[in-house]
Amino acid sequence: MNFPQLPRFFLAATIALAVAVTPLLLSQTPTPSLTLLARDGRRSIPLTVANDQELVGLDDLASAFQLTVQESLGAITVSYKGKTIVLTPDKTLASVAGRLISLPAAPTRNGRRWLVPVEFVSRALTPIYDVRLELRKPSHLLIVGDLRVPRISARYESLGAAGRLTIDASPSASSTVSQDNEHLTVKFDADALDLPAPWLPQQPPSSLSLVQGVRQIDAVTLGIDLMPRFGGMRAASQPVDNTMRLVIDIAAPAQTEASQPALPATPPPAAELPPSFGQAAGGLRTIAIDPGHGGDDDGAKGENGAKEKDLALAVARRLRGALEGRLGVRVLLTRDDDRNVPIDDRTAAANNNKADLFISLHANTSVRRTTSGATIFSAAFDKDAAQAAAAESERLPAFGGGLRTIELVPWDLAQTRHLDSSTAFAELLRQQLHDRVPMSARSLEQAPLRILESANMPAVLVELGYLSNPDQEKLLTGDAFQSTFVQAVYEAVVKFRDAGVSGGAR
């Protein structure tokens, strides 16, 4: 459906915006405005900020949406095709087609104009309007009609000599990546893009960022400028819930003779893509990493503000980068943002993606502030449960005739077939962590942990340390500890792979 009767200046503004896209990537403008985006083009409506509320003029909304505004008997009536909104000055309650709604602020007079909170659009106008309206207040965007306008978010991670740029499009929108020397273009299958400001958080000066800048080329295309002579790149997309995630891995540039240090006499090899980049690592094809907690579940907390959910996710992302970049395996995170994922869904994600190894990351807490050290857990079952899991089977018809025996393992006993290999990996991990990071007095434990019981592959849970210990809180949140921990896990995975430890039939 077309945008209703736009003024002529709107078309001129649309042409100008097509050439110079609204500078959302640069900075917030001093005076905010609401951008109306329709299939016919764009239009900006000025906003007024008063008492921390963003207000929009009723006359501007009336012009854009063919509304009739009348003031009579101490009330303001807004009409559209026989449906009415009744506002009362200095009152936050309003009547929308006979139904009461609440606004965050009351209508305010400014000279001869009436101003209403910008939420008036979503709470009052949307219910009576005959075209879909979607207000996205954080980006000052109002979408008119059925347009595909995914929210785009991004983050950049330095992974030693490499880097990773992750771009999320939500609702899900596919994209294509093309390369021209040090420049990448990412074109989305959409009508427009919803970009925050600033779009990509600036990296600190000390960061070894391989991304020099990200800009918007047109309404649906982004441009990415990489470091000159970068070593290589790989792009891959995967759906995550209602989001399409684009991951661009970038290798550092190879060193030239001029850039190599004079000492030591034998310089380290150039940081190029490893031979295994993009290839499976032996028998390990997929590794699932589970950052514990998330969303409204903070997990353990330190007295200086550290949260288990944030620590687990930060370490999981680092570990994913090391394993994917150096081993070429596929790494699945059970969550890659701050949201709550039920325990059974975490294990199900690993099982459904046929992961060959499962590592759950957590941090501990104790009533004793001096308690410290990492602990590695594998699952524990009583004898009756293990025997029951081993005994269950069923004879089913086989293709081509005859019968075959199918082992039936209850969901919560799937780990029983992998206990030996889980214990073996836990021991390898303990060996690599020993003398590198603080370990608890009992660094290897077995416990009936629900997150491990249903894992149909070798699985361990690692408590990184104790956030209840102020010294450990500072240590665990530091770059040195996290880098050392990731290196130890990487080496344990390599030894596990090279040893050919099998988790049993899958």
Task: Give a quick summary of the entry.
With 506 residues, the chain is of the alpha+beta class.
Report strand %: 25-35%
Helix and strand composition category:
alpha+beta
The whole-number mean of residue pLDDT values reads 81
Q: What's the N-to-C terminus distance?
A: 53 Å
What is the topology, as strand order, of the major beta sheet? 9-10-3-2-1-12-11
Task: Point out poorly predicted stretches.
Answer: 1-29, 203-207, 255-281, 502-506
What is the fold named in CATH at topology level of the largest domain?
A: Aminopeptidase
What is the 3D form?
Answer: elongated
Count of discrete alpha- or pi-helical segments spanning 4 or more residues: 10
What does the main sheet amount to? 7 strands, mixed
CATH level-four homologous superfamily name of the largest domain: Zn-dependent exopeptidases
Beta-strand segment tally:
28
- Helicity, as a percent range: 10-25%
Number of domains: 3
Supply the CATH architecture of the largest domain: 3-Layer(aba) Sandwich
CATH class of the largest domain: Alpha Beta
- Rg over C-alpha atoms, rounded to the nearest angstrom: 28 Å
